[in-house]
Amino acid sequence: MTESPNAFEMRGIVKRFPRVMANDHVDFACRPGEVHALLGENGAGKSTLMNVLAGLYRPEAGEIFVGGQRVAFRSPQDAIAHGIGMVHQHFMLVATHSVAENMVLGLNRPRFFLNLSRVEEQVTALGEQYGLTVNPRAKIWELSVGEQQRVEVLKMLFRGAKILILDEPTAVLTPQEVETLFHTLRDMTKRGHTIVFISHKLDEVVAISDRVTVMRRGKVTAAHVPSRETTKAQLAKLMVGREILFQIEKKKAQPGKVVLLVEHLYADNDRGLPALRDLSLQVRAGEILGIAGVAGNGQRELAEVLTGLRHAVGGKMMFGDIPLDRHTSWLNLGQKLAHIPEDRAAVGSVPGLSVAENLILKCFHRPPIAAGWSINRAAVHQNAVRLVGEYQITMPSVDTPARMLSGGNLQKVILARETSGHPELMIAVHPTRGLDVGATEAVQNILIRQRDAGAAILLISEDLDELLSLTYRLAVIYEGRLVGEMPTKDAEIHTVGLMMAGTKVDA
Ligand SMILES: Nc1ncnc2c1ncn2[C@@H]1O[C@H](COP(=O)(O)OP(=O)(O)OP(=O)(O)O)[C@@H](O)[C@H]1O
Ligand SMILES: [Mg+2]
Fold first, then answer.
1. Are 22 and 45 in contact (CB under 8 A)?
2. Is residue 83 located within the same domain as residue 183?
3. Whose CA is nearest to atom 27 of ligand 1?
4. Ligand 1 pocket residue status of 48, Cβ below 6 Å
């Protein structure tokens, strides 16, 4: 075992949750200065294993060694004291504080607060060293998602992390931001830092990592495979146990009549600031219109206004010949309008309800589910069993609470509910974000099937590959405006990436 403080080894790690063995005697180790990718399908146990390494979870069994020494972490502070820091997929920054303040929050060393300008200097110096430029005085809420991620990485470096765990760091970045991040990662490894990189994007994994370890159902199925000696297809097979095509089979779209018409739409965000400014678009039956953009440019507000969760402050929306406005009865639109929301846990599902109950949230007021004043339990159960089979949802039983499902399976529950009623219009927001290759393929096929059945689909996504492979037309949203719209066959990934970042491009 290496004595370098930048190397670690986990042996026989066991971590159980109710009904799930999340880590079943897992061995995992990293050499100093490598980028080690950790792969696996949704629910395989990757985040759990890294939460153990980062001191957030305590394992029921197993040992951890850092630099050859046995360690036991009681908290993330213990882990960072041994040089291990984790950047979680959901950032843990305090929005109303500055970058520099976030560096020292939770450090339990009040004297730091007295010398914030010293911290600011250090942040600037670290930023220059690693190509992570960010204004140390900026408040977190003023920063883009890409910048916030830089702050998370800086925070770990500031606290002395030598081993950095990144849990799906590229899910929310533009192609250009991914490049910048990869530069930083290479700088870090040159300085001896070790990086654990979790991602479902296999092209990136092959590009950035030195070695790969794959998990399946709580166990390691392939350990320390040199990335150079493997391919995307092989990795996918190791992850999900079957071949993945990486290409959705689809016919050419046959757009029909306009189903959704939006003209000069204006809306405000939660802070009362303009989020949508004079936005106009049309989606026709049988086509998928893609909206590309970096998170925070109005996508959420657009989806909310279109699904009745937020009021517009100006403009006009028509769903066929039904006006969508303050007088619309959204409940009556029911299954005609499908919504795959960004926030699956909070908006898309009710975590405490069972899978079967989550599947009827949109049709509980109609027969056969409604029986007079009550709910027909047998029909609820039958409906669930049918959809679980049709959409290949994996879980212990239809009575399992939604909160216990892995990301991919929860997403399939929402899709099953939203698409089983044959919607005319579908608003899908990041429908495959964070899903493994197998679940992504399943979800994309469901969207294409809906399109072919005549649904008009508005697909809001940050994943350019996905937009390019699924859509018929593509528009880019930037600061609440649509900047450029093109037939997808003419779209070029680099140009679209620049437009997403607000650069004016002559098309
Ligand atoms: N806090 C928890 N309580 C109960 N079960 C949990 C909890 N966290 C994770 N699980 C379960 O443990 C298993 C492993 O989850 P984990 O989050 O580690 O998967 P993952 O490999 O990171 O998946 P993904 O790619 O979807 O992020 C899953 O079955 C999940 O449902
Ligand atoms: Mg995870």
1. yes
2. yes
3. 42
4. yes
Number of domains in the chain: 2
Q: 313: phi > 0 → left, psi -120 to 50 → alpha, else beta; which?
A: alpha
- Among 185, 214, 240, the domain boundary falls at 240
* Residues 41 and 186 both lie in one domain: yes
Instruction: Clarify whether residues 133 and 265 are in a common domain.
Output: no
Using the predicted structure, report yes or no on whether residue 452 has a pLDDT greater than 90.
yes
Query: Closest residue (by CA) to atom 25 of ligand 1?
Result: 42
Q: Residue 192: is its pLDDT beyond 90?
A: yes
pLDDT at 26: 98
For ligand 1, the distance from its centroid to the CA atom of residue 217, given in whole angstroms, is: 10
| Domain presence at residue 506 | no
* Domain match, 340 and 281 both: yes
Is 406 a pocket residue for ligand 1 (Cβ < 6 Å)? yes
- The residue range of the domain holding 469 is 258-500
The number of the ligand nearest the C-alpha atom of 433 reads: 1
Position 360 in a domain = yes
Pocket test for ligand 1, best of 19, 20, 432 (most atoms within 8 A of CB): 20
- Distance from C-alpha of 212 to C-alpha of 357, rounded to nearest angstrom: 39
Same domain, yes or no: 222 and 280: no
40 lines ligand 1 (CB under 6 A): yes
* Whether residue 288 is found in the same domain as residue 217: no
**Mean pLDDT confidence for 158-181:** 86
Report pLDDT digits (tens) over 334-356.
789 998 887 766 667 788 888 99
Residues 350 and 487 in one domain: yes
Tell me the residues surrounding ligand 2 (ion) with CB < 5 Å.
Answer: 47
249 inside domain: no
437-460 burial code (b ≥16 CB/10 A, e <16): bbbbbbbbebbbebbeebbbbbbb
- The string of pLDDT tens digits covering residues 389-422 is 888 888 888 998 988 887 778 888 888 888 888 8
Ligand 1 pocket test, candidate residues 13, 17, 49, most atoms within 8 A of CB: 17
Q: State the DSSP H helix or E strand holding residue 271, giving kind and residue range, or none if neither.
A: none
- What's the CATH number where 491 sits? 3.40.50.300
Ligand positioned closest to the Cα atom of 88? 2
Structure tokens at 291: 């909206």
**235 contacts 243 by C-beta, under 8 angstroms:** no
Reported as half-sphere exposure (CB side, CA atoms, 13 A), residue 151 has a value of: 30
Residue 431, in any domain of the structure: yes
User: Is the same domain home to 84 and 223?
Assistant: yes
